[in-house]
Amino acid sequence: MDRIWQALPEARLVGGCVRDLLCGRDVHDLDLASPVPPGEAQRRLEEVGARVIPTGLEHGTITAVIDHHPYEVTTLRRDVSTDGRHAVVAWTDDWEEDAQRRDFTINAMSLDQDGQLHDYFGGLDDLRAGKVRFVGQAARRIEEDALRCLRFFRFFARYGRGEPDGEACQAIIRLRETMTRLSVERVAMELLKILSGPQLLRTLELMEETGTLAVLLPHHAPLSGLERLLACGDPAEPLHRLAVLYPPGGGDGQGMADVGAHLKLSNESRDMLAAFARYGPELAVTLDDDDIRRVLFQQDRSILLLRSWLVQAQELGRPDGSWNELRHRLETVEQPVFPLAGRDLIALGVKPGPEMGRWLKQTQHWWLTQGCRPDAGACRDWVSHQLSPS
């Protein structure tokens, strides 16, 4: 920071890092703003030895890399025009004008190198009171960028206390349909952050009350299933929470597959949702060690662990030590590997082709019935005995 302030003495810390510093939370990224135009800022930073990457010049943003750590530096801006998704900006040297572009008062504060807080809209008081409030008129801020509807719920979940801001909720109700014009990828990113965050049930209930949830996740299941999952103390993983909102319908999991496609999730995420929908091997606290090895062979360990929470929520809906013990065993039992290969069968006289495939399948079935314990030699002996039962 000393080197950045040497190059840009007018620069201030801005946004989330200031908010989290003030409320004692961990700060992972330090973002700055400066009245210096981006080209001049790049020149000054390079003079003090920073490597500068022009990450978003059209928006006035460059990234200074110092000791392998990135710092985003953005020139103060004002909006020339907005269309609900994108803004055309111009540079300014007016800090308050730049702060007016921020979404919420708690995100509109800045901190200079002397430790002086600059708070134009009462963000510190709102932070202390647990109030998430738009800068200026809520409706106008949402009209500038409809994604701010979702960001309101995400920040309310993390920083809000008491009743949500009434003006914000009324504006969201009136403008919620504008979110349908947003890119699905942006919506999905915010939704997954909400699903992995705190106060989830309360937040989704508020989204339901404002009609937001119906716009973004139509035909979702009642929130009672999610309430049962959260009561179990599940890990804050968004995909299995999303799965509870779209349980398999008619046994085929179509709803879950649809939501993955609707949100344009990654192939990996869609595969995980599909695995939840298919369910896979049965999970129960009564599984013995042989059963544990069998289910580990049949389905990925990470899927099994998340599925265990879904089953616990469905069967109990509350914390339970037996399910915790099952998860411990799922985590610690060694992953079984079927030890027989085609070359082993060739050595026993089995011809390559369909016949080999049948023998591999039959041997694997026997191996599973034995709790995945037989090694390659035992599997060969079993096949040899089946080939020559006399």
UniProtKB/TrEMBL annotation:
The protein's name in its UniProt record: CCA tRNA nucleotidyltransferase
Domain tRNA nucleotidyltransferase/poly(A) polymerase RNA and SrmB- binding: from-to ranges: 167-221
The Poly A polymerase head domain, residue ranges: 11-133
UniProt KW Nucleotide-binding keyword: yes
Family: Belongs to the tRNA nucleotidyltransferase/poly(A) polymerase family.
Cofactor(s) needed for function: Mg(2+)
Signal peptide as annotated in the record: none
Keyword terms of this UniProt record: Magnesium, Metal-binding, Nucleotide-binding, Nucleotidyltransferase, RNA-binding, Transferase, tRNA processing
